[in-house]
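Suppose you are handed a protein chain with no further information: no name, no annotation, nothing but its sequence. What can you learn? This example shows the usual starting point.
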Amino acid sequence: EDPSLERHFKGHRDAVTSVDFSLNKKQLASGSMDSCLMIWNMRPQMRAYRFVGHKDAVMCVQFSPSGHLVASGSRDKTVRLWVPSVKGESTVFKAHTATVRSVHFSSDGQSLVTASDDKTVKVWTVHRQKFLFSLSQHINWVRCARFSPDGRLIVSASDDKTVKLWDKTSRECIHSFCEHGGFVNHVDFHPSGTCIAAAGTDNTVKVWDVRMNRLLQHYQGNAVVNSLSFHPSGNYLVTASNDSTLKILDLLEGRLLYTLHGHQGPATCVAFSRTGDLFASGGSDEQVMVWKTNFDAADYGDVLKTQKSGTSSIIPEDGTHQTLQSEMDCGIHLKKTKTQDSGRNHEQQEEETSLANTLEHIMGQLDVLTQTVSILEQRLTLTEDKLKECLENQQKIIQNKMS
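A reasonable first move is to predict its three-dimensional structure. Written in structure tokens, the prediction is:
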């Protein structure tokens, strides 16, 4: 079955620049040149939230891993953290001196990496909302920056035509990939963390191995590629291009699977949901679209399971598909034996799941608390300022009367 259009969201008043799903797929965030952030509710009859705060175009949005916060970057040079609820309150991060093009949470939700036209990549702590350090070796605008799944590496893409790989701890640039013929619009890590994919204005998508620093795959399109997203299984890649199409690439076969026409005008952004059964796209036509992936469940359900049990790179080293085949078999095999197991194992599993869910919930609550505290701090500062102003005015009035 081919991918199909599931939902269609209208509400932005200018080009959509960025889309991202929350963990539970109940919400979808989008940013737009209209300076607004929209939170769309995937459940029918639930209204959308429009968040106003940025003074200029919103270039990028992302949900925190827990789904309790949304980060956004803007042309107004700031980064904001929002609580995606009715109130839509936010706190502001200021350190960049130009447009912020990219925001990304680390997988533990503790750090945020941002990329800007000021040619730097910056790392922040989420809870203390403090700027930590800058990575500054790019010599042109930085369009995109991402943490590796394990949080040890950062990859960044720039108009200086390079993709740079950084070590987060030593803050050094480990490698520069220079094979792009144009600006690099977007870059991301493969779910395994072993390779990266980059999209460029030279109409290409390139996949590099970050252990050997060599080119693994190269897809030549016929239009500028604006954005890309890996399927959680690591077997597919979806791209958004200026020719208004979305393309799904099969990374195992190294070929184009589907071309989807939905947007009028350039498709600007695209993102898979965290489970991979949906993906969303945005365009300069102001539309946000949600698509059903409709891949054969066997294609990736089992791969996801085996990946969690710690498999190696999905893209085979030697160009053969043997490694993957055995992983998939083992995945299906695992599934069968599990169901035949005694009930005790199942209960244990359920306990583990509920424990994980509780932890997830606590982390989320922590996010919200942190955010609330810093909103209160902001208000307190405002109140203090107002009080000071009142006192100063009173002084002036008294002085005027005396004189």
